[in-house]
Design a protein that fits this description.
The chain has about 150 residues and is an alpha/beta fold. The protein has six helices and five strands; from the N terminus they run αββααβαβαβα. The protein is about 45% helix and about 20% strand.
Length: about 150
Amino acid sequence: MNDEYYMRLALKEAEKAYAEGEVPVGALVVVNDRIISRGYNMVEKLNDPTAHAEIIALTSAFNALGAKYLPDATLYVTVEPCLMCAGALHWSKLGKIVWGASDRKNGHQVYTGDTNPFHPKTVVIAGLLADEAAQLMKSFFRSKRS
């Protein structure tokens, strides 16, 4: 199992969000090749602007492991984390973060520029399966406009 395998599973979570009328972002947390948690955007469903895929997956991972830090975990998320999620990811002390499509409108880089908001020991990989994730987002917003 590799990063692409897990990102494809995160894309399946994003498809669940899409099917429920949510912005299609999916995430999962993996430790030692074991999926600890999954999440997808539930902002509309929960009527909660903080119910992003990353937050859902992190909360579930903390509960599953009984820990507040995840130094041995990798988070896979289909779209670049927003500023709120970047802060949560920083405090989670994740070992690795992998995301797909960049978010030039709401991604953390809009606010932080070249500054890395994540924990100094966190490895970051950006752009994995970016085209697939971007297509899902484009399709979702196109469907909302028609």
